[in-house]
Specification:
The protein is mainly beta and 196 residues long. It contains one helix and 13 strands, in the order H-E-E-E-E-E-E-E-E-E-E-E-E-E. The strands form three sheets. It has an eight-stranded antiparallel barrel with strand order 5-6-7-8-10-11-12-13.
């Protein structure tokens, strides 16, 4: 049986240097690499991820985000890993936490039916995945220091399929209406060598 998701998510806190797992302190070396202070009872994988979007014909910077993910090390039958923690920045704003699996970010609901688009916080390796996309149609949800939220997902149900960033901003209206946005992105992630 998997651990309670709420407990797994609350096991991460921001120390100002990035993720800190409360059961296992993670420190930074002089080279900026994250290393555990002691051996973990459960091995976890660390991933680098990034995405960007530049409107066609636009000059300068568009939407940009990058950071690290922590996942379990045991992919399910579909080749998906469970995301346990996230750190990074979206357009310069610090990511503060992972939205709990099975919940939706504020405003990410179908405006007609009112049904929420819940995240599943799953990812797969591009080289080992059973399908070309690394995220599911539910995707990964996270909160930001400015009070906004993002849900990254792969819209396999659209033609052509594509990655999207649904970004919600207070007062969090239903759906992709201002000040919310839904932007096509170029997403990539890869597992860094070794375990956390």
């Amino acid at each position: 049986m998997r651990p309670n998701r709420a407990k797994a998510i609350s096991g991460f806190a921001d120390s100002g240097l990035g993720l800190v797992h409360r059961r296992e302190r993670i420190g930074r070396t002089a080279l900026g690499q994250v290393q555990p202070a002691h051996k973990a009872a459960r091995k976890e994988l660390r991933w680098d991820w990034s995405y960007e979007s530049r409107p066609a014909g636009a000059h300068g910077a568009g939407l940009q985000a990058r950071g690290s993910l922590i996942t379990d090390n045991d992919a399910n039958g579909d080749g998906l890993y469970e995301v346990l923690g996230i750190e990074g920045r979206r357009n310069g704003v610090r990511i503060t936490g992972l939205v709990p699996t099975g919940t939706a970010i504020p405003g990410n609901v179908d405006p007609v039916t009112g049904i929420a688009y819940n995240v599943d916080n799953k990812i797969q390796s591009a080289s080992k995945g059973m399908s070309p996309e690394q995220l599911t149609s539910h995707g990964i949800g996270f909160s930001l220091a400015d009070g906004s939220f993002s849900n990254l997902f792969f819209a396999s149900f659209l033609s052509p399929p594509a990655y999207y960033d649904f970004h919600s901003v207070e007062p969090f209206p239903a759906g992709p209406v201002a000040p919310n946005s839904e932007t096509t992105i170029h997403f990539q992630a890869h597992i860094m060598g070794g375990y956390c």
